[in-house]
Amino acid sequence: MTRAALLADLIACLGESNVLTGEDAAPYLTDWRRTVTGRALAVLRPGDSGEVARVVRLCAAAGVPVVPQGGNTGQVAAATPDASASAVVLSLARMNRVRAVDLDNDTITVEAGCVLQAVQEAARQAGRLFPLSLGAQGSCTIGGNLATNAGGTQVLRYGNARELALGLEVVTPQGEIWDGLRGLRKDNTGYDLRDLYIGSEGTLGVITAAVLKLFPLPRAQRTALIAVPGLPQALQLLQRARAGFGAGLTAFEVMSAACMRDVVQAFPLQRMPFADLPGDAWCALLEVSDSEDEQHAQERLEAVLAAALEEGEALDAAVSVSGAQSAAFWHLRESITLALAQARACVKHDISLPASRIPDFVQSTDAALAAAFPGVAMRVFGHLGDGNLHYNLLPPEGASQTDIQRLVHDRVHQAGGSISAEQGIGQRRVQDLQRYKSVVELDLMRRIKRALDPQGLMNPGKVLSADSDGVLP
Fold first, then answer.
1. Is 419 among the domain residues?
2. Over the stretch 64-110, which tens digit does the pLDDT of each residue have?
3. Is the domain of 331 the same as that of 244?
4. Reduced to 3 states, what is the DSSP secondary structure of residue 180?
5. How many angstroms separate the CA atoms of 182 and 388, rounded?
6. Domain-embedded: residue 204
7. N or C: which end of the chain has fewer CB within 10 A?
8. pLDDT digit string (tens) for 20-68?
9. Residue 171 forms beta bridges with which residues?
């Protein structure tokens, strides 16, 4: 089939306004970090799962690759086509309907193009909580969250996106629709296809809808920003908070003092509650949800913080007394990435380790980087509660980003960690995956890819690399 014939068939399927080419397609072709720009045969905007299936069938018959795209907020260019202009970008943005809310089953069924914040608001309007929370929640979509198994700030209590999904609707690489939209918490009937597609970054099929778990809204929430002498004390504070709050501890973040100074410098309207934070100190951001009332939440939090201050695990603490103050604390945390974007080139790492190993890892890796790259400046923050750090640094001029990342990732691997905690592999980390995954793991992944997508048309070049003959896995 010629390019012109395929485009004509796609226009007949979707309508001319939903098959974008030329300048109209440009906004979909560059990744969020604006370092990778591809080209596409067209950008397609289906309106429902039936149209997705028809588009995929047309592309499969023509041998044309398909690059699924949600909100295009990813960090690893997983939703960006290559430079060949041979693929279509499949934007799910029009598929943004809430299909159903089942309060008796505590579930919400939504389409893949629903923006995360819209799902949170729909849940709240129904008197429920959908707890997935990310810095990009105003623009990232549920399909992308599931395709990357997104994490965020409340993984400590509620888990990653995988733990929040009960069922999926997926269009296969052959253009079939798998209706797995079952709101079941127990279903022991064979292989778990849902978990296979979640985290696959669009390389095995296109997630078009999902049944998601809902939770009761907390009666009260309290947030505390706490200055701690260092990461060992932050870890001690985490254990104290877990013992004191149990399942009520919904978030536990850490941020280096350098990150906090960057935020205040970049955004002067933001204020730190601590007048003088030592250079080697850290901040912990702790959130507690309570099923009783505001007073009960306040008393529990004050008791834990008083013990932490007495034991030297905390230097100072500021506790929110209103929703606005809590939002201001979170705004400080969420502004770190924006502040770093204003600095010189930042080398980013999204790593995970057992929480118990994080203090030693940071101390020893900071020292190793300082010895290998004099003048390097660390900017570390992340989700200590679930062992995920955004281990970022500002390199000295002339330093090799590849060498820096190799040093960091080698040390993560040696410590039994992961080089991608919540952002995925995409294009950026394909070679890293080859280096750190075992031969057996890679072979199993390739077998799954070949079995489900024998033509290799679903999001090629992402997660798995081509073999030595240039054949897609």
1. no
2. 999 999 999 998 999 999 999 999 999 999 999 999 999 999 999 99
3. yes
4. strand
5. 31
6. yes
7. N
8. 999 999 999 999 888 899 999 999 999 999 999 999 999 999 999 999 9
9. 177, 206
